[in-house]
Amino acid sequence: MAGGAPPPREPASAAAATASISRSTAAFITRIRFPDDWKLRAVSRLLRLLIPPRRQWPAPGTPVD
Asked: Domain of life here (predicted)?
């Protein structure tokens, strides 16, 4: 067999696994961006103000070359 993952054996299990990964990823990102501890939240907000965003997304509808 050349490269790639084997096909899932049970479509329902594959769908459940994909949904679980999506939920856990979203929860992880939320916990990093908005921590529960007020001290970490304050540091996070301060860093967002001090560190400029590095990626500038093009406006919607901009032609891609």
From this structure: Bacteria
